[in-house]
């Protein structure tokens, strides 16, 4: 477990250094506006991460931090719209459902295509739930390639699959406190 955490931290530190070096590069070229834009993106990224940390889902957070390393042809971005909610009781559900979705995608999608994955968590306060939307975009043929196969193979009926013009959206809900 310690080696695993060290590996995650090394990747995390590497990503942080890459982001900061881009800002430094713009500044060294006298491009203050671009540096300011990149720095703003970095700050926004860490604000989202803070919201993720506040959800109290340590396994899910590690899953997200490892995502781009684990899934080589998928790139994850995420938005959290559920601040200051404890979702600890849903930690393993989040990891399990998202992992199942990604395993289906890895089996069906072209490994030579880079896919954009957008994860969004939205709080529904009146129901003490958070909805999870995982959208996959990339290949213009994504909907025809996998929608039918995935719907047919999806034995987990708690995950809804919706086709869009440029991909698929997987949705499910989990309890929060």
Strand order of the largest sheet: 1-2-3-5-4
Task: Indicate the CATH class of the largest domain.
Answer: Alpha Beta
How many helices? The count is 5
Helix content: 40-55%
What would you call the structural class? alpha+beta
Second rung of CATH, namely the architecture of the largest domain: 2-Layer Sandwich
Radius of gyration: 18 Å
- Gross geometry: globular
Low-confidence stretches: none
The tally of domains stands at: 2
| Gap between N and C termini | 29 Å
Would you tell me the overall average pLDDT? 87
Q: Which range does the strand content fall in?
A: 15-25%
Order of helices and strands: HHHEHEEHEE
CATH H level, superfamily name of the largest domain: Sporulation initiation phosphotransferase B (SpoOB), C-terminal domain
Biggest beta-sheet profile: 5 strands, mixed
Q: What is the CATH topology descriptor of the largest domain?
A: Heat Shock Protein 90
Number of strands: 5
Write the layout of secondary structure elements.
Elements: H1 2-28, H2 32-54, H3 58-70, E1 74-81, H4 91-108, E2 115-124, E3 129-137, H5 142-153, E4 160-164, E5 167-175
Parallel strand pairs: 1-2
Antiparallel strand pairs: 2-3, 3-5, 4-5
Helix pairs in contact: 1-2, 3-4
Q: Which terms would index this structure?
A:
Helix Hairpins, five-stranded mixed β-sheet, alpha+beta, Heat Shock Protein 90, 177 residues
Brief summary:
The protein has 177 residues and is α+β, with helices and mostly antiparallel strands. 53% of the residues lie in helices and 23% in strands. It starts with a helix and ends with a strand.
């Amino acid at each position: 477990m310690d080696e695993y955490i060290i590996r995650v931290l090394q990747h995390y530190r590497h990503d942080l250094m890459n982001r900061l070096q881009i800002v430094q590069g713009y500044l060294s070229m006298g491009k203050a506006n671009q540096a300011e834009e990149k720095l703003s993106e970095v700050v926004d990224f860490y604000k989202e991460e803070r919201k993720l940390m506040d959800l109290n889902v340590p396994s899910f957070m590690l899953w997200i931090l490892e995502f781009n390393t684990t899934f080589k042809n998928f790139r994850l971005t995420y938005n959290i719209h559920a601040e200051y909610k404890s979702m600890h009781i849903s930690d393993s559900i989040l990891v399990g459902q998202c992992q199942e979705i990604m395993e289906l995608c890895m089996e069906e999608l072209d490994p030579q295509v880079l896919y954009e994955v957008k994860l969004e968590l939205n709080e529904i306060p009146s129901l003490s739930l958070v909805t999870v939307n995982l959208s996959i975009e990339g290949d213009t043929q994504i909907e025809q390639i996998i929608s039918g196969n995935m719907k047919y193979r999806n034995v987990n009926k708690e995950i809804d699959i919706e086709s869009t013009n440029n991909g698929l959206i997987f949705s499910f809900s989990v309890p929060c406190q």
